[in-house]
Design goal:
CATH architecture of one domain in chain A: Orthogonal Bundle
Order of helices and strands of chain A: HHHHEEHH
CATH topology of one domain in chain A: Arc Repressor Mutant, subunit A
Largest interface: A-B, 35 and 35 residues
Helix content of chain A: 40-55%
CATH class of one domain in chain A: Mainly Alpha
Largest sheet of chain A: 2 strands, antiparallel
Oligomer: homodimer
Structural class of chain A: mainly alpha
Shape of chain A: globular
Strand order of the largest sheet of chain A: 1-2
Number of helices of chain A: 6
DNA sequence: GCGTCTTGCTACATATATTGTAGCGTATTG
DNA sequence: CAATACGCTACAATATATGTAGCAAGACGC
């Protein structure tokens, strides 16, 4: 883990090397709490501690790590006084997950296949 | 990790307890390689080894773990002779990620903000 | 300018998850 | 019987996440 977050040449997401953006994106999103964070910010900005509370008290260590990654990726920004919120990119990305909510509802009733 | 995959009371995804399906889903998808696996199966079934090859030689240990989870979740199935493929649910889920591909392309060109 | 909040964030030891390499048992093919 | 490919597992090394505690900075009343 880099000591200074914004170092290490722009964003160093695994899969960036392949030149396939979708891989970089899937790798970033496929890290624990990343999807959850984006999801929890859907209603508006949250302070780091509010975000933690809403994320089952996830440890601040990893939350901070993910928030840094998401900030580097341009999905999240820290507005002083407001807390963490989604950027334009973040909201755009979130749009892709909205249908997931309804899907999850249907999927959760799958026992009786 | 459960020795017998299909044991442990239906599906034991973190967040299931909350009764919010979206949490269970986000948790499942937010595990390393999960999103990638679903993505790589978009074109049709792959054998375990073909899948591994296409996933940057990810270790079979974790691939097997994820495949088991995805099978329990009902997104993936193993067809003898065919390999691993998406189920109806899996394809349905994948639909939600297709727009992500084009999004990733746009997002990857974000340097010059 | 003292206490007392809350903020974003970090240290550090412990637990858990992932990686990488090797290989098993089975089936299929020649 | 090789030779091959399959799904899958063991196991040690490494990377990542967890949980608890706490720091420094800013805002508030006093």
């Amino acid at each position: 883990m880099p000591k200074s977050p914004s170092a290490a040449g722009k964003h160093s997401v695994r899969g960036s090397r392949t030149g396939r953006p979708i891989m970089a994106l899937l790798d970033l999103l496929g890290r624990r709490w990343t999807l959850r964070i984006i999801w929890e910010l859907r209603g508006g900005a949250l302070t780091s501690r509010a975000l933690r509370a809403v994320c089952d008290q996830a440890s601040p260590t990893i939350l901070q790590t993910r928030l840094t990654e998401l900030r580097e990726a341009g999905f999240v920004e820290l507005a002083p006084g407001e807390g963490y919120g989604l950027t334009g990119w973040g909201k755009d990305l979130l749009e892709n997950f909205v249908p997931l909510h309804r899907f999850a509802e249907r999927w959760s009733k799958r026992e009786e296949d």
